[in-house]
Amino acid sequence: MKRLVCWLLPAVFCMSCGESRQPETSVLTVDDDTSFPKREICLQDIAEVEYVPLMTSDSVLLGDMLPESVSDEGIAVKGSQFKDIYLFDRTGQQLQGYINRCGQGPEEYTSIVSCIMDWQRREVFIADFTSLKVYGFDGTYRRTLLRDADMTALILHDLDSRHLLCAREQKDATQPYRPYFRLSKEDGKADTLTVTVPRFLASNRKVLWDDGSMNMAYGFMPLLSGCEDRVWLTAVALDTVFRLHPDQRTEPVLVPRHAPTTDDETPLLYFRGMSDRFVWLSWTPRNVTVRMSDMQAGMRERNPVYMYDRNSRTWCEPVYRNRDLATDTQDVSYIDLSSVPYGYALVLLNPANLVEAYRNGDIVGEKLKQIAATLAEDDNPVLMLLKMKN
Hints:
Strand order of the largest sheet: 1-21-20-19-18
Radius of gyration: 21 Å
Helix content: under 10%
CATH topology: Methylamine Dehydrogenase, Chain H
Strand content: 35-45%
Number of strands: 28
Mean pLDDT: 89
Number of domains: 1
Number of helices: 4
Shape: globular
CATH class: Mainly Beta
């Protein structure tokens, strides 16, 4: 279950360190308020920073692809054509594996819709449009877990050493249903979880066509959210965000003050992620009008992401800065929480931008300056790994 491009996520301003921090397990009640102030946040103030350049060669050209997984065991990046996966070591300078089994055969995938790394088993679970197959790090086919399935409608996440966690939405359901199930990594057997969603809820979209016609559509909300080693149940009709433990125990972590199941006008909570200290979320309007011409042009609404600091007990709309850069022309516009372990975040630094900043003398951090001095504009990106402070 992996994510997507150009929205703001984690980080926070260091305030009022003398106040006691709420326990990690405390349940946070949130109002659907969008009047929080913008606040400039220096990433170095809220995280320990590590830069990891990814090796570049004639056969390893990635483009601006976010990693699928970053862990102590390695870094996995999907190729820009969605056909292959590069498995780097933790330094980003050596390949420990490569998978390219794109094709039409029974042991191949047609495209990579989503993928999950199991670094301990040294296996990669790859979903195309109709199947879920398993490969070794050397690209060897091992087994097929799902066949003839609509994989675009299935959300996948790593749960434990033996299972994947899956979720499938039931569009228009008016009665309670159970969308979550465990999937065996060995044989694909499914085990439905007892978590029950009372009914289907989504953002209602009124789509306007250029000829004046109109039709209705749904803006689906994610049923799952996760990072490398944790997963949360985020179905908005649950009226609560739960952490799901490997033993299937659920732990409430976030509750909207106005429950969407009882208030038809309240916006829907979009959970973006959390650490021990910080929570990130946005609000999706319950009813939205969009123009088809805007959608075809690639335009889409961007709901601001808000951040809560448990230390200061304050909300803000963060604007991120990198202290290793002298100007704000290279501001961070995307921070990823899903491909890293809990308590970490990730920023992708464009090599062409770094080369330009180096030529202009705008890089002041010595480590980043050393990396930029050796870069070419078409090299692979540099990872800025953030270990969030408490």
